[in-house]
Amino acid sequence: MKINFDEGFCKITDLEEFDPRDIFTCGQAFRWYEEEDGSFTFVTHGIVANAKKSWG
Fold first, then answer.
1. Is this structure's pTM higher than 0.85?
2. What's the CA dihedral at 40, 38, 21, 6 to 10 degrees?
3. SS3 of 24, please?
4. Which intervals hold domain 8-oxoguanine DNA glycosylase N-terminal (predicted)?
5. Does residue 43 sit in helix, strand or coil?
């Protein structure tokens, strides 16, 4: 796994298994909202986090 910070984004690459739908809809992660583009958004203390699996 590699973590890079670039222009206000935290990009995590080289993950073998990551499926945001499985993670954020499992019932253990709360307040994540699915967006039309398939990403998931969470807002807390004025900070917005958005997670999406990127192909390629």
1. no
2. -50
3. helix
4. 14-50
5. strand
Per-residue model confidence as pLDDT tens digits over 1-33: 888 888 877 888 888 788 888 888 988 888 899
User: Where does residue 39 rank: exposed (0-12), middle (13-18), buried (19+ CB within 10 A)?
Assistant: middle
User: E strands within the chain?
Assistant: 2-6, 9-13, 33-34, 40-44, 47-51
Our measurement of the distance from residue 42's CA atom to the centroid of its chain's CA atoms, rounded to an integer in Å, reads 9
Contacts of 47 (CB under 8 A, 6+ apart): none
Q: Identify whether the C-beta of residue 20 lies closer than 8 Å to the C-beta of residue 33.
A: no
